[in-house]
Write a structure and sequence with these properties.
The protein is mostly helical. The chain folds into two domains: 5-64, no CATH class; 67-157, Arc Repressor Mutant, subunit A (Orthogonal Bundle). The protein has helices at 5-17, 22-35, 67-74, 79-93, 105-114, 123-132, 148-157, 163-173, and strands at 57-59, 62-64, 136-140, 143-146. It has a two-stranded antiparallel ribbon with strand order 1-2. A two-stranded antiparallel sheet has the order 3-4. A hairpin with a 2-residue loop joins strand 3 (136-140) and strand 4 (143-146). It is elongated, with a radius of gyration of 20 Å. The termini are far apart.
Length: 174
């Protein structure tokens, strides 16, 4: 019985890419796609292999992060920042099956758990507090949408520099 050529190609690529870090893998895939005159695409059906996180897929800008890896990268320090991060993820990065322009209490519970971020005691209060902090706007009862302040927080301000570095800079100025 002859082995399927697509499966053989997949196995070969995976074996060759294993020793590379994420940046190296991205560069190799980007180059190969350009060399073959192909564009990256987001599949309607995403398969999850053992090492992948649920919801990870690929789009033209590179790998779409799952909420857990995005949380690790952006390092939110509070429930307010985490709520803004969830709203950003759902509106900008999530696969089509998860994407949403707004967030609610059920989503907050789900994505706090998926991100392994400490669950707020009152998830509903986390939404209202994030809105009061200026990161979200209320679009209807119980539904909130990321606003420009929340977007800028996630994209431009996170991760924040460490507190010790900030404290050292303040001491030097004094």
């Amino acid at each position: 019985m002859e082995e399927d050529l697509e499966l053989k190609a997949i196995k070969t690529i995976i074996e060759l890419m294993k020793p590379l870090d994420e940046t190296g893998r991205s560069r190799v895939l980007e180059y190969v796609l350009k060399r073959l005159d192909m564009s990256a695409f987001q599949s309607e059906v995403t398969t999850v292999s053992e090492g992948d996180a649920p919801g990870s897929s690929v789009f033209a800008g590179g790998p779409v992060k799952d909420i857990r890896s995005l949380t690790a990268e952006k390092q939110p320090r509070s429930a307010n920042e985490m709520v803004a991060l969830i709203a950003y993820y759902l509106s900008e990065l999530a696969p089509a099956t998860e994407a949403s322009p707004s967030v609610n209490v059920e989503m907050i519970r789900k994505y706090f758990k998926m991100a392994a971020f400490p669950m707020p005691r009152v998830p509903k209060a986390a939404l209202t507090n994030a809105a009061a902090a200026g990161y979200l706007e209320n679009v209807s009862r119980g539904e909130y949408r990321l606003n420009s302040v929340g977007y800028n927080l996630v994209v431009h301000a996170l991760p924040r520099s460490s507190t010790s570095e900030t404290a050292k800079k303040r001491r030097k100025r004094r």
